[in-house]
Amino acid sequence: MTQTRSLSSSQPAIETTALRKVYKGRPVVQDLSLSVGPGEVFGFLGPNGAGKSTTVKMLLGLVMPSSGSVQVLGGSPQDPQVRRQLGFLPEQFRFQTWMTAQEFLEFHGRLSGMSAGDLKTRIPEVLELVGLPGRGGETLNGYSKGMLQRAGLAQAILARPRLVLLDEPTSALDPIGRVEVREIIAGLKAQGVAVFLNSHLLGEVEQVCDHVAFVQRGVVLRQGSMAQLLGGALPVEVRLDRLTPELLSELDHLGTLELLPELAGRPGVQVQLDSDADTPRIAEAVARAGVQLYALTPRRSDLEALFLELIDTSGEGQV
Fold it and tell me: CATH 3.40.50.300 residue ranges in the chain?
């Protein structure tokens, strides 16, 4: 079997510097600098036309950049030894539907340099992992779209890659399937496999990703760890039977206050905390004041809110 170079524990799985791609005089990826570490799940988010697909094609060596540099697993994505360590599930998959799932996986496994003996044991493993146990003998043209997506995911992880690129991996799956894909991604991460994830399901991204980059019109607007992007001040809404001067004074020591309109006859106040560790102190202050507490609701920002804040989706094209 062909020997492949290994990825050290400290070497980035993906590293791009000032990466740029121009089509017909129009830049679709501009000054893209990213670093994805081993075992890291990286979310790459943006509206249609943001340059996400073009970026993935450059990472796979399918499209050459106009300028800048890209390294994948410490080498060029054009290098066959590097490509053998990549797994990829495209959003628009076009599989050989006249094949059985077993034949389909054997075909892709041989392209990756896997031996017949390894394929014999590995194919049942990945079919079980993606929720298709015992379905290897069926032809793909009899599969539903969700089953085809599962087969594509099996193909992406078959050769035990060091980096997996997933483009909308749960788009055709039901909620159970989405949970299973999250578990597969967590398993890959535990094995030190890096995952580069494109998805419009921001709730899914929020649950699995370590780092996220928001991109629009080929430009990264913001990137960072989940803690960096969603951390910081925490607004907490408090609903009570009444507000007293003593309680307001205590809450004022915890953070910035904003009085809220009554809701169902219950007054409210929003307390802007520096840390969610201070949340129990609000309940303690309410108890000391002898006031009845009806609701204490943290209003932490999520990825969807941040996405809508950053991204202007007007005028986007398909790239």
Answer: 14-229
Top-tier CATH class for 232-300: alpha beta
* CATH architecture of residue range(s) 14-229: 3-Layer(aba) Sandwich (3.40)
Mean pLDDT for the chain? 87
Q: Where in the chain is the domain with CATH 3.30.70.1710?
A: 232-300
Cα 67 to its chain centre, rounded Å, is 26
Q: How many CB atoms lie within 10 A of CB 233?
A: 13
What does the pLDDT read at residue 96?
Answer: 86
When pLDDT is cut at 50, 70 and 90, the band that residue 10 belongs to is low
pTM of the model: 0.76
pLDDT-based confidence at residue 2 (cuts at 50, 70, 90) = very low
Residue 99 has pLDDT above 70, yes or no: yes
